[in-house]
UniProtKB/TrEMBL annotation, chain A:
<comment type="similarity">
    <text>Belongs to the CbiQ family.</text>
</comment>
<feature type="transmembrane region" description="Helical">
    <location>
        <begin position="98"/>
        <end position="117"/>
    </location>
</feature>
<dbReference type="GO" id="GO:0005886">
    <property type="term" value="C:plasma membrane"/>
</dbReference>
<feature type="transmembrane region" description="Helical">
    <location>
        <begin position="60"/>
        <end position="78"/>
    </location>
</feature>
<keyword id="KW-0812">Transmembrane</keyword>
<dbReference type="InterPro" id="IPR051611">
    <property type="entry name" value="ECF_transporter_component"/>
</dbReference>
<keyword id="KW-1003">Cell membrane</keyword>
UniProtKB/TrEMBL annotation, chain B:
<feature type="transmembrane region" description="Helical">
    <location>
        <begin position="68"/>
        <end position="96"/>
    </location>
</feature>
<dbReference type="GO" id="GO:0000041">
    <property type="term" value="P:transition metal ion transport"/>
</dbReference>
<dbReference type="GO" id="GO:0005886">
    <property type="term" value="C:plasma membrane"/>
</dbReference>
<dbReference type="InterPro" id="IPR002751">
    <property type="entry name" value="CbiM/NikMN"/>
</dbReference>
<feature type="transmembrane region" description="Helical">
    <location>
        <begin position="43"/>
        <end position="61"/>
    </location>
</feature>
<keyword id="KW-0472">Membrane</keyword>
<keyword id="KW-0813">Transport</keyword>
From TrEMBL, chains C, D:
<comment type="similarity">
    <text>Belongs to the ABC transporter superfamily.</text>
</comment>
<feature type="compositionally biased region" description="Basic residues">
    <location>
        <begin position="242"/>
        <end position="252"/>
    </location>
</feature>
<dbReference type="GO" id="GO:0005524">
    <property type="term" value="F:ATP binding"/>
</dbReference>
<dbReference type="GO" id="GO:0042626">
    <property type="term" value="F:ATPase-coupled transmembrane transporter activity"/>
</dbReference>
<dbReference type="InterPro" id="IPR050095">
    <property type="entry name" value="ECF_ABC_transporter_ATP-bd"/>
</dbReference>
<keyword id="KW-0067">ATP-binding</keyword>
<dbReference type="InterPro" id="IPR017871">
    <property type="entry name" value="ABC_transporter-like_CS"/>
</dbReference>
C-alpha cells in the first residue's frame, strides 16, 4: 500500500495536498459500513506514520467529539427497525448504521489530512496551492492573512483587555462594545494596508509573494499515483460489495 | 456552522466545489476589471485578517457564547473580494484548526459566500437610502440565509433511510440554537456600519 | 501612607521559567516611580499583575491595604497601554473617554462633568467629536490618560508613555504628568523622562528587582546600568564632546 | 559626488496646503544626514517623494543625475519604514529578506548569496527560518534593513529607526548603521542618535527646510531648536544638575 506519510520531510507540500484531496474524496465516496474499518485503519496508520501522534491526537479532539455526537444522536432519532429499547429510549438500526458510517468517514478523513498536512507549515501549504494553480490573488490573500493573523488577534485581545480594565459590561450589553472593537480594527487595518502596499511596491511586488517552486520529484509522483490507485480501489471495492 | 468531512455524499461535495469555483471565477473576473487589481490585495488581506481574527473571539451572548460569522459584514466591506476571502479563510480554518473540512470546503464556501453576496447586493442597492435597516438585514439576513442553505444541504445529503420528521426536528433545534447569533450579528453589523459611516465613510465604497 | 505593597511576588506558568520572581516594593500615595529594564525584563507582567490581570503564583499584592484578587475590576488602578490604538476602541474621543465613567454607573451629568474635567486636564477640550484614528500620536496618548483619569484612579501604570512621540508631544506629556497628583509607575526606555519625573527608580532585569533607589544615584551608576543593558542618560554624564566625533563622517 | 539632488520640490494635493514646499538640498554618495522636525513637518512625505511613491507638484528630484518619475521601481533607493511590521510582510525572515532580490530577477544562487550577506551584515544569520512575528523589536528593525540591503541600494531612507527599541537594541542598531557605507537620510526624534551618526542635519518644519548644517551647530542652537519644537540634546547642553530637581517630588 502506498503510505505517503512515511517520508514526512521529503514529500513536497504540493504532493501532500494532492494526496490528501484524492484520498479524502476516495474516503468520502464510501457508502457501505463494511468498508469503515478499512478507512479507520488507513487513517490510524497515517497518523502513526506521521510521527506527531500526540500533537495530532490533540487536534483530532474536535472531530472526535463531532463523530461521537453523530454516533450517539442518530440512533436515537432516526430509523424504523428497533435495535434495542431501554425504558423510554429506543435505539434504531438505520440511525446506528448511518451514525457509524458518518463518524468513521469523518475520523478517517481528518486523521489522514492531519497526518499529511500538519508536518508542513501553513505557508508552505499556501505556496503549494499556488503551484497547483490557485489564482495568485487568492494565494497572496492567504499569505498575508497568515502573516498578520497572530498580530491582529493579539490586537483584538488587547482591546478586549482594555475594555475589561475599564469596567466593560458583560452579556448582551457587551455586543455593541464588541462592534466598536471590530470597527476600530477595520479602520486600523485599512490605514495599515496603505503602508503595506507602499512597502510591497517599493520592493518590486509584481505577481506573487513566494519563491519559485521546484518541479515535483519522483517520490511526489509515486505518492500521488499510489494515492490515486488506493482511492479508485476503495471506490471500486465499496461499489462491488 | 461548517459542514464537517464525512457527512455529505461525495457527489454533493464535488458539486459544492463546482459551485464555489464558479462563484470564485465570477468574482475574480469582476476584480480584474478594477483599474489596478493588485493594489487592492493588501487592503482585502488586512480586512480579511480582521474578520478571521474577530470570528475567533468568543463573545458572550446569554445563555451561551457565540463565534461571529461576519459573512454579511464581509460582503458589505469587501464586495466581490468577499468570495476569495471566504474561500481562503475556510481553507486556513480547515488546515489550522480542523474546522470544516477539505472535502466540504466547496459547500462551506457556498454557505458563507452566497449570504455575503446577498449582503453586498442589499447594501449596494439600498444602503444609501436606509442604512440602518439595510445593515440590520444584511447582518441578520446573512446568518439566516447561511442557516437555510446549511439545513437544505444537510436534508439533501442525509441517507434516505433516515426518518425525515426526526431529522427536521433536529434541524429546527439547530436553527433555534442559532437565534442569538442571528440577533447578535444584526446588531454588530448595524453598529459597525454606523461607526464607519460616521467616522470613516471612505471605507464604504458603495452605499 | 502606603498605597501599593508587593511582597515576594512571583509570576509565571507551571513548568516554565517565571517572568517575575521575588518582587517586593511599596509605593506611597502620590509617589512617582520609574521602572526601567530591557524588553522582556518583566515590566509588562508587573503592570498586569498590579492591574489584576495576572495572578501571582506566590506572594501578595495589596492595594490600600486590601489584598488583590485576579479578575477583579479595579477602578482605583488605571493601566495606560504602550499601544494607544489598542486602548482607544470607541469611535470618537469623547465616547472613549466617557466609556470608563459610564461603566461606574454614574449619572449622565456626573459622567459629562468628569469627561470635561479629564479632557481639560489633558488639553483635549474641543476634540470630543474627533474620530480616534484622526488624532495625532501625542493626542492619542493623552486621550488614553484622559480615559484613565475619568475613573479617578489613585494609581496610574504607564507603559512607555513617550514611545513614538515627537519632542513637542513628549514635552507636553511630561508637563501633564508632572502636574498630576496620582501615584504613578512609569515603565520607559526614555531615561531622561524618568529622570525628569521620578524621584525614585526601580531597575528590573530577568524578572527581578536589581536596584531600587533615588533616580539620580541609580541611573548615574554606570556599572549597574551597563550590567542591565542600560546607558547612563546623557544629562548625568560628564561632558565629553569628543564622544560623537569618531562616528561622524567628514563627507557631507 | 552627488547622489541625490532635490531642487525646489513642492508636494501637495490641489486645493490643499502643500506638505512640502521649496525643498532644495543635495546629498553626496555615502553621506549620512539627519532629518529632524516635529510630527507632521513633512519628513515622511519627503521620504516618499525621494522613493518615488509621491510625485512632486513642482521641482525636480535627481538620483545619480537621472530625473525621477513617479511609480518607478527604484532598487537604488530603499525606504525603511517606521513600523517594521508593515514592511515585513513575508512569513519568515529569510523569505522576507529574499523578496526584494527575487523581484530584481536574479538567479536563485545570486539571491541566496545576497540574502546570506545581508543577514550577516545585520547580525541575523541563523534566524532565516524564524516566523517574522516571533522576532523581537530590534530584530525586526534589523530585518527591515537587511531586506533593504539585499537590493544593494546606494541610498537608505530610515524613518525613526530607533522608535520602540530598548537601549540594548538601539545601541546595536547605531553600531550597525555606523559601519555601513551607503548614503543615508535618517529621520528621527532621537537627537542623540542623529548626533552620533550624522555629521550634517536638516531641520524640517511645516514642509520647509529651516536649517541645514553641521549637526553639532544646528542641534546646539537653542533658539532654533525651540522655534521648531525641538530640544537641544542633553549631551550638548552645559550641565545643570538643578534642572531635574524642580520636577521630582520628595515623596517616595
Amino acid at each position: 500500500m502506498a503510505d505517503p506519510a512515511c517520508s514526512p520531510i521529503l514529500l513536497s507540500a504540493r504532493a501532500r495536498l494532492v494526496v490528501a484531496f484524492v484520498l479524502a474524496f476516495g474516503f468520502a465516496s464510501v457508502q457501505s459500513l463494511v468498508m469503515v474499518p478499512v478507512l479507520v485503519a488507513i487513517g490510524a496508520a497515517g497518523l502513526l506514520a506521521s510521527g506527531m501522534i500526540r500533537h495530532n491526537l490533540a487536534r483530532l479532539r474536535g472531530a472526535a467529539l463531532l463523530a461521537a455526537g453523530f454516533l450517539l444522536i442518530l440512533p436515537l432519532i432516526s430509523g424504523q427497525t428497533e435495535l434495542a429499547s431501554l425504558g423510554p429510549v429506543t435505539l434504531y438500526l438505520e440511525g446506528a448504521q448511518a451514525g457509524a458510517l458518518i463518524a468513521g468517514r469523518l475520523l478517517a478523513i481528518v486523521a489522514l489530512t492531519l497526518a499529511l498536512l500538519s508536518p508542513v507549515s501553513p505557508f508552505d501549504l499556501v505556496a503549494g496551492m499556488r503551484a497547483l494553480g490557485v489564482p495568485s490573488l487568492m494565494a497572496d490573500l492567504a499569505f498575508l492573512t497568515l502573516r498578520y493573523m497572530q498580530e491582529i488577534a493579539g490586537q483584538l485581545s488587547r482591546g478586549q483587555l482594555a475594555r475589561r480594565l475599564r469596567g466593560g459590561k458583560t452579556g448582551w450589553r457587551a455586543v455593541p462594545d464588541h462592534a466598536f472593537l471590530v470597527a476600530s480594527s477595520l479602520i486600523r487595518a485599512q490605514l495599515r494596508s496603505e503602508q503595506l502596499w507602499a512597502a510591497m511596491r517599493l520592493r518590486g511586488y509584481n505577481a506573487g509573494l513566494n519563491a519559485p517552486v521546484a518541479p515535483l520529484g519522483p517520490l511526489d509522483w509515486a505518492c500521488i499515483s499510489g494515492a490515486s490507485v488506493l482511492a479508485v480501489a476503495l471506490f471500486w471495492l465499496d461499489r462491488s460489495l | 456552522m461548517h459542514l464537517p468531512d464525512g457527512l455529505m455524499p461525495v457527489e454533493m461535495a464535488l458539486a459544492g466545489y463546482a459551485g464555489s469555483g464558479l462563484l470564485a471565477t465570477i468574482s475574480l473576473s469582476r476584480i480584474k476589471r478594477l483599474p489596478d487589481p493588485s493594489s487592492v490585495v493588501p487592503r482585502a488581506a488586512m480586512l480579511t485578517t480582521v474578520f478571521f481574527a474577530a470570528s475567533l473571539v468568543a463573545i458572550p451572548v446569554p445563555p451561551t457564547t457565540v463565534h461571529l460569522m461576519l459573512a454579511g459584514l464581509l460582503g458589505v466591506m469587501l464586495g466581490w473580494f468577499a468570495i476569495p476571502a471566504i474561500l481562503v479563510g475556510l481553507f486556513l480554518q480547515a488546515v489550522l484548526f480542523g474546522h470544516g473540512g477539505l472535502t466540504t470546503l466547496g459547500l462551506n464556501g457556498l454557505i458563507l459566500g452566497l449570504p455575503a453576496l446577498l449582503a453586498f447586493g442589499l447594501w449596494r442597492s439600498a444602503g444609501r437610502r436606509w442604512p440602518d435597516l439595510v445593515a440590520l438585514c444584511a447582518g441578520s439576513g446573512a446568518v439566516v440565509l447561511a442557516l437555510v442553505i446549511f439545513a437544505a444541504l444537510v436534508l439533501a445529503g442525509m441517507p434516505a433511510a433516515l426518518d425525515a420528521r426526526a431529522e427536521q426536528a433536529a434541524l429546527w433545534v439547530f436553527m433555534l440554537a442559532h437565534l442569538p447569533l442571528v440577533l447578535a450579528e444584526g446588531l454588530i453589523v448595524l453598529v459597525v456600519l454606523r461607526v464607519l459611516r460616521r467616522t470613516a465613510p471612505q471605507l464604504l465604497p458603495h452605499g | 501612607m502606603t498605597l501599593l505593597a508587593l511582597s515576594r511576588v512571583a509570576v509565571g506558568w507551571p513548568g516554565q521559567e517565571s517572568v517575575l520572581s521575588d518582587v517586593t516594593f511599596s509605593l506611597a500615595r502620590g509617589a512617582r516611580v520609574g521602572v526601567v529594564g530591557p524588553n522582556g525584563s518583566g515590566k509588562t507582567s508587573l503592570f498586569h499583575t498590579i492591574a489584576g490581570i495576572l495572578a501571582p503564583q506566590d506572594g501578595t499584592v495589596c492595594l490600600s491595604g486590601q489584598l488583590l484578587r485576579k479578575g477583579q475590576f479595579l477602578p482605583e488602578v488605571a493601566l495606560v497601554f504602550q499601544q494607544a490604538d489598542d486602548q482607544l476602541f470607541c469611535p470618537t474621543l469623547g465616547e472613549d473617554v466617557a466609556f470608563g465613567a459610564r461603566n461606574l454607573g454614574l449619572s449622565e451629568q456626573e459622567v459629562a462633568l468628569r469627561v470635561a474635567n479629564a479632557l481639560h486636564a489633558c488639553g483635549l477640550t474641543g476634540l470630543e467629536g474627533r474620530p480616534v484614528y484622526q488624532l495625532s500620536g501625542g493626542e492619542k496618548r493623552r486621550a488614553c490618560i484622559a480615559g484613565a483619569l475619568v475613573m479617578q484612579p489613585s494609581l496610574l501604570l504607564l507603559d512607555e508613555p513617550s514611545a513614538a512621540l515627537d519632542l513637542r508631544s513628549r514635552r507636553r506629556l511630561i508637563n501633564l504628568l508632572a502636574g498630576m497628583d496620582q501615584a504613578m509607575l512609569i515603565a520607559s526606555h526614555d531615561l531622561e523622562l524618568v529622570l525628569e519625573l521620578c524621584a525614585r527608580v526601580i531597575v528590573l532585569d530577568e524578572g527581578r528587582i536589581c536596584a531600587d533607589g533615588p533616580t539620580r544615584d541609580v541611573l548615574g551608576d554606570a556599572a549597574l546600568m551597563a550590567a542591565h543593558g542600560q546607558e547612563v542618560p546623557h544629562s548625568l554624564t560628564p561632558h565629553d564632546t569628543a564622544r560623537h566625533k569618531h562616528r561622524q563622517q567628514t563627507r557631507r
